[in-house]
Design a protein that fits this description.
mainly alpha; 4 helices; elongated; transmembrane helix; transmembrane; membrane; coiled coil
């Protein structure tokens, strides 16, 4: 009888330590689950931001009424013309003044077109903001619904 009582006493005395180990294990599991949820949410936010950036770019180019390749070609050509004019202006002789004036006129026309495109982009600002808010709202709704499904344990 004494042997059974001694074993029971040891087991009862070991219970607080075992309970503490169980709490630490449960906390560890909760931390791991929270980390996984954070990773999932960050992935969804990244996906939403990529979608938003694509939509903003598409809306901006649609507002400018220009294809992306044409825009890049114009900017590259403009850069080359500016570099050519810079080199020509560095020459103190300036024997090619009429050609230089013609290049400056073309450059001014290109800058005027770019200014018009920039104004169209600034006019598209409210539309882009509205699209951004809609996308953010949709993403937040999807995340909350996913978390509620996870919490309730059902796959709808």
């Amino acid at each position: 009888m004494r042997h059974t009582s001694n074993t029971l006493t040891r087991r009862i005395l070991a219970l607080p330590g075992q309970f503490l180990v169980a709490l630490i294990n449960a906390t560890s599991i909760l931390v791991i689950v929270a980390a996984v949820l954070v990773i999932v949410m960050l992935n969804r936010i990244e996906t939403a931001s990529e979608t938003l950036a694509a939509a903003a770019t598409e809306a901006a180019l649609a507002r400018m009424e220009i294809a992306p390749g044409d825009l890049k070609a114009r900017l590259d050509g403009l850069e080359m013309r500016i570099e050519t004019l810079t080199q020509a202006l560095k020459n103190p002789d300036l024997p090619q003044a009429p050609a230089l004036r013609e290049d400056l006129n073309r450059l001014n026309n290109n800058l005027a077109q770019l200014n018009k495109s920039a104004q169209a982009l600034s006019a598209a600002g409210p539309e882009l903001t509205e699209n951004a808010l809609k996308q953010a709202g949709n993403s937040l709704t999807e995340i909350v619904l996913a978390l509620s499904r996870c919490y309730s344990g059902t796959d709808q």
